[in-house]
Amino acid sequence: MKIWTSEHTFQHPWETVAKAAWQKYPNPLNPSVTGIDVVDRHVDQNGILQTKRVLSTSWGLPAWVTSLVGMDKDCYAYEKSEVDPKKKTLTLKTKNLTFCNFLTIDEFLIYSPHPEDKTRTHLKQEAIVKVKGVPLSSYMEARVTDTISKNANKGRQAMEWVIDHLKNECKDLRLEAQKCMDKMVAQGASKATS
Predict the structure, then answer these.
(1) Model pTM score
(2) Domains of the chain by start residue, with CATH
(3) Which residues in 17-45 are b (16+ Cβ under 10 Å) and which e?
(4) How many H helices and E strands in the chain?
(5) Which of 3, 4, 71, 193 is surrounded by the fewest CB atoms within 10 Å?
């Protein structure tokens, strides 16, 4: 078993980062996530938004590997998330469904306001990797953990991309609303002088 942990600070408030996390896929920095299906979503008796999703991913394995291990092109993972708006936490727990007979990857992410600066967001990330029933399991666990580490950086870059994308959408909407207001004011002024 290998355990990988990481922490990161986003220079954005929790609300912004939490919104971006929901809209993270698809993005050009991590095209491996090919689909997301919401299985269940509800607000529980404590006001916590509970969501269960299935993620479809393409690992980009060569055809000979997929035929050797007998798998489809797509791989699947199950994600359970909780948003606690009072505590301002977004917790994600993801577990692979594909290869789960010999490889388990349990990933945990917690987004919360930075303890020293509430205008920033703290991310704590952990992955537990277990390979069983195959030769060189320790080596394989190390390789999977290395891949997780590399992909974590891509994930953070993707979050920044989504945040920028959301800010630009808001800016575009503001500009469009301002144009409409200016047009209405101009039309009103034109009618008043006629």
Answers:
(1) 0.83
(2) 2-189 (3.30.530.20)
(3) bbebbeebbebebbeebeeeeeeeeeeee
(4) 3, 7
(5) 193
